[in-house]
Amino acid sequence: MGFLLAALRLDLPTVVVQDGGALFDVVPYALGLAALDQNPVEVVAEMARSGGSRVRRLVDNFSLANALRAGLSAGAGPELLVHLAAVAREAGVSGFSQMIRVLASESPAVADRTWLQEHGPAGLLAGLGSVIHDTPTVTGRMREGLPPAPPLPDVKARRIFFLRGRASGTEVVCYAEASAEEVSGECLVFSSEEEAVRAVEGGEVGEGSLVVVTGCGARGGPGILALNGLGRVLTEAGLDVPVLTDGLPPSKASVALPWISLFSPEAASGGVIGLLRDGDTLRFDLARGRILTGVSTKDLASRESFQALDHPPFGYVPRYARSALPALEGAGFG
Asked: Residue 109 in 3-state DSSP?
């Protein structure tokens, strides 16, 4: 994704070559930056002769919508939203953060890794049918390069839910089974992933808990942190408990484990997640898109807010920590 951002910044003719078997591999194809039905070496050679389509011509609202739908259908989680928001910002595409909130909720995972390895990105894009826009690509038009649509597999779908706190204006992204209606629990609050991992390994986390990990957002990290270590120890312990964080879920989140992530505003920006304490109760109503708590506004206001780590006054790290954009705006420099 870093190379794509660099290509956008320089507005170069770009061809992406990937094997198509991983969750994010479908994204360049959906953006029109990878050859669906031609040898990529030949495509590159032709682009060298003709100049080709520059990347900014291909990345627009329609190709980003294709990438969002296809990536989520392939099983990618909230991390995809952050990456595509960064691409949209670098490409100068406006309104993508609003698009995310509409399309992400309509795009459950419909394919698994085995199916993707067999049929590839072209098969997935064909299988999604009319929801995929016929956008320009490095080889012509999107639908010109698609094969006959293969039947989609019967998988246990996951999807993304957006939820808001009515009074506080907070927002979270919940990645859970499409049939889920509610997530709730009693908070166990940790100021880092390392603290949470030690608590799980020490037997301090039990059923009915809601594990809250703060300081993992763009400014708190600095850089958004994925809780891979916590995901691993929860799986090893056989704990089916939800996790709430201002960071990201692990790249291989368990189907049975609800992950509530990208809490905004994050703790380091004064968000409510930094005011939560052990014993607080939270309920996430997925059907209504609401966050409900048993803690009064007065109690929250009386609490000391999250204290981010101190950084040296100079250099890119403290500059980024002070100015990083929210996750759904790409988490880049503000």
From this structure: coil
Asked whether residue 16 falls in the same domain as residue 91, the answer is yes
| 21: nearest Cα among 126, 150, 136, 111 | 111
Distance CA 99, CA 329 (A): 12
pLDDT band at 169 (very low <50, low <70, confident <90, very high): confident
Length, in residues, of the chain:
334
251 alpha-carbon distance from chain centroid: 10
Residue 188 near residue 278 (C-beta atoms within 8 A): yes
Residue with tokens 């360049």: 28
Kind plus residue range of the DSSP H or E element containing 211: strand 209-213
Domain tally, the chain: 2
Structure tokens at 111: 């394919």
pLDDT in tens, 29-44: 899 888 776 666 565 5
279 token code pair: 């014993």
H helix or E strand, kind and range, residue 244? strand 243-245
Residue 275 within a domain: yes
List the one residue out of 61, 82, 68 whose CA is nearest residue 324.
82
Residue 100: count other Cβ atoms within 10 Å of its Cβ: 24
The whole-angstrom separation of Cα 70 and Cα 7 is: 22
In this prediction, residues 175-201 reach a mean pLDDT of: 94
Q: Please indicate, yes or no, if residue 17 is contained in any of the structural domains.
A: yes
Q: Which residues pair with 54 in a beta bridge?
A: 13
The CATH number linked to 267 is 3.50.30.80
Rounded Cα–Cα distance for residues 120 and 118 (Å): 6
pLDDT tens digits for range 68-83: 999 999 888 899 999 9
Per the structure, the complete domain to which residue 56 belongs is given by 2-145
User: What 3-state class would DSSP assign to 23?
Assistant: helix
- Amino acid, single-letter form, for residue 22: A
The pLDDT, as a whole number, for residue 128 is 94
Name, in order, each residue with C-beta under 8 angstroms of 102's C-beta and a sequence gap of 6 or more.
Answer: none
Taking the mean position of all CA atoms in its chain, how far away is CA 328?
A: 8
Helices (H), 61-141: 61-73, 78-91, 96-103, 113-128
